[in-house]
Amino acid sequence: LQNLLKAQDLLQAESVEQAQNAQGGCGAATSATREALQRYEAAFKKRLDEVQRNVEIVTRHGHEASQALQETEQLAATALQAGISAQAVADIKQAAERLRGITGDARKHIEEVLRDQDLLQPEVLKTVQTAETAYGRAEAKAQETIDKVETALRKAEEEARRKAEEEARRKAEEEARRKAEEDARRKAEEEARRK
Predict the structure, then answer these.
(1) Does the pLDDT value for residue 178 go beyond 90?
(2) What is the mean pLDDT of residues 71-75?
(3) Neighbours of 13 (CB within 10 A)
(4) What value does the mean pLDDT take over residues 148-163?
(5) Considering Cα of 68, then 70, then 74, then 80, what sign does the dihedral take?
């Protein structure tokens, strides 16, 4: 009964009062105590079920996050091999955003689990804490992949711009040389005709 009164947050106010009254006069109040105990057990079971559900969600999100990270990295590898484009970068960012959505939701469930960590077995608690660390690493890896792809895109754009400028300069020089040769030939023909 004393343990029951310590967990008052799980009981309704009237149940606590009934339990306190029952503590004084055990004979007639035994049924009230039983009812309070049953409500406590139901609330405890509900709380335990909620924690289990959250642990399962955290685990499931772990698999989904792993797949999203693989998709992000695969898109990046393909883009880097095939030639990076702005669309490829957008696709990679979208995959990384999906990963962030999964890890964000998982972190909410981890917070809920950690609030009730006294109900967890040490192995389960360790698994949840490991998952939290893994989510952080996955997000960091996805951001690193995005940074790498954006850098590659910038380099490719700079290279394309440099080549375009070089080509334009080469064409301008070629045109100027051609014009100069044509002018010289025309002047030579004019001079020859004049002579």
Answers:
(1) yes
(2) 88
(3) 8
(4) 90
(5) positive
Compute the distance between CA of residue 142 and CA of residue 29 in angstroms, rounded to an integer.
61
- Work out the number of other CB atoms within 10 angstroms of the CB of residue 29: 18
Model confidence pLDDT, tens digit, residues 1-36: 556 555 555 555 556 566 666 555 555 557 777 787
SS3 letters for the chain? CHHHHHCHHHCCHHHHHHHHHHHHCCCCCHHHHHHHHHHHHHHHHHHHHHHHHHHHHHHHHHHHHHHHHHHHHHHHHHHHHHCCCHHHHHHHHHHHHHHHHHHHHHHHHHHHHHHCHHHCCHHHHHHHHHHHHHHHHHHHHHHHHHHHHHHHHHHHHHHHHHHHHHHHHHHHHHHHHHHHHHHHHHHHHHHHHHC
Q: Which residue has the higher pLDDT, 117 or 140?
A: 140
Q: CA 92 to CA 98: how far, in whole Å?
A: 10
104 contact partners, CB below 8 Å, separation of at least 6: none
